[in-house]
Amino acid sequence: MKKIILAASVVALIAVAIGVKSLSGSDVKDSMQAMKKNYAAAMSSTDMSEFSRYAALLQAAAHDASQQSYDGSKPNEIIYQAGMLELNQEMTALNQAVAANDLSKAKSILAKVNDSKKKYHTALGE
Ligand code: HEM
């Protein structure tokens, strides 16, 4: 009987953990998908009002990603957070170009974001 209660408790705990994880919102993968979508939309924007809308959504997704942890291993977590910091710095430069209404500069900054993406995806083996 004790064994059954123990097994039921373990199953209940796992169910709660899965529930909490799904309620806690998006994971890295979801944030990355949102970044991809809004990055592409910003790059194909033809005016600043359109660009800035997608740039804001890209930044919101990047912010979400920065709040998540990678895989729990210390070396990867350090690389991941370094990449998120770099992304955040690029977003600051991006906002300056948006504020200056300079669409071509803003797009060239986003092209650099793509280099960071490649660098960190490679570093993390993604
Ligand atoms: C604008 C820049 C970036 C874009 C557009 C982007 C896009 C993506 C996409 C499309 C995926 C695949 C998601 C899937 O499997 O469905 C991905 C995965 C991933 N990216 Fe990025 N990424 C960017 C920057 C970064 C940076 C700077 C880092 C690290 C600091 C990073 C870390 C990761 C990781 C860890 C995954 C694997 C997620 C998982 O499968 O759980 N990405 N990214």
TrEMBL record:
GO molecular function: electron transfer activity; heme binding; iron ion binding
Any Gene Ontology biological process: electron transport chain
Signal as UniProt keyword: yes
Any single Pfam family the record assigns to this protein: Cytochrom_B562
Alphabetical list of InterPro entries matching this protein: Cyt_b562, Cyt_c/b562
Record keywords, A-Z: Signal
Gene Ontology CC, one term: periplasmic space
Key word Signal present: yes
Family: Belongs to the cytochrome b562 family.
Name of the protein this chain belongs to: Soluble cytochrome b562
Organism: Ephemeroptericola cinctiostellae
